[in-house]
UniProtKB/TrEMBL annotation:
The keyword Nucleotide-binding does not apply. Keywords: Hydrolase, Magnesium, Metal-binding. The keyword Magnesium applies. This is Inositol monophosphatase family protein. It comes from the Bacteria. It comes from Campylobacter porcelli. InterPro entries: Inositol_monoP_metal-BS (IPR020583), Inositol_monophosphatase-like (IPR000760), Inositol_monophosphatase_CS (IPR020550). SUPFAM superfamilies: Carbohydrate phosphatase (SSF56655).
Length: 270
């Protein structure tokens, strides 16, 4: 499919509709759901499955292939020229189970290995962040405003050594789960997010796009290039993500990560 055949404004509206439908299914299950375990021992709930079904029902009308965490068969059909939806119907399943509210729906459109549209929806807080190539970034349909106080570092809730990094650069730590982290970076409520342990393609694609749209940057720590969402394996490289105001500090942060013996890398996924 060529660039001129992509009506991104229309696809954006369809993605929003799919995200809202998934969120409705998730909230319907919030007080009563069943828990299963996947082969890798990660959690799966009936909410994940019903949200996935709702997204497929809507996105399938676009006739663009769908790759989802909960139905990964099409992943081996991707290549560098592919166009496909990349979906996490419920990002933060553990947080959903614990009812912390820190979970979301993630939908991205990938074209030639990079996202060109992204939607992140937090059903509990009824907040939806979205954008597509050539447009502004929206929060609940309104163009977002950027906060200029970006002296915080976002950390996942898994144990890691990122606190040493924060202390070295005098950054406060905000602990968050799921792709909700990216909404903080996009709005300027935080400036730095470093992932030193495993994540999957569907976890980051929508947030990656929104961050770049806001003027920020997100790079693989292995080759300092933007993440490739068409690669054959489904795990991301470790990465660094910076808000627009933090971008000038990229070289300082990379120097520290490359030279520090205090920062440990791992392949665990939270």
């Amino acid at each position: 499919m060529s660039d001129q055949h992509l009506n991104l404004s229309n696809l954006h509206q369809i993605a929003l509709k799919a995200a809202f439908a998934a969120g409705a299914e998730i909230l319907k299950s919030y007080s009563k759901f069943q828990i299963y375990y996947k082969k890798d021992n990660s959690l799966l709930t009936t909410a994940d499955l019903s949200a996935n079904e709702a997204i497929y029902k809507i996105l399938s009308k676009t006739q663009i292939p769908i790759c989802s965490e909960e139905s990964i068969l099409p992943f081996n059909q991707r290549d560098e020229n592919s166009i496909f939806w990349l979906v996490d119907p419920l990002d933060g399943t553990r947080e959903f189970v614990s009812r912390s509210g820190e979970f979301c729906v993630c939908i991205a459109l990938i074209y030639r290995s990079r996202p060109i549209l992204g939607v992140i929806y937090s059903p509990v807080h009824n907040q939806i962040y979205s954008s597509y190539q050539g447009s502004s970034i929206y929060k609940n349909g309104e163009i977002i405003s950027i906060n200029e106080n970006e002296s915080s570092l976002i950390s996942g809730k898994s144990k890691n050594d990122i606190d040493k990094f924060a202390k070295n650069f005098n950054l406060d730590i905000i602990k968050l789960s799921s792709a909700i982290k990216f909404s903080y970076l996009v709005q300027g409520f935080a400036g730095v997010f470093i992932r030193l342990y495993g994540s999957s393609l569907w976890d980051t694609a929508a947030g990656d796009f929104l961050l770049h749209q806001s003027g920020g940057i997100m790079l693989s720590l292995s080759d300092l290039k933007p993440l490739n969402y068409a690669k054959k394996e489904t795990l991301n490289d470790n990465f660094i993500a910076l808000s627009s105001l933090q971008k000038p500090n990229l070289s300082r942060y990379l120097d520290y990560l490359n030279s520090s013996k205090n920062i440990k890398f791992s392949n665990n996924i939270d």
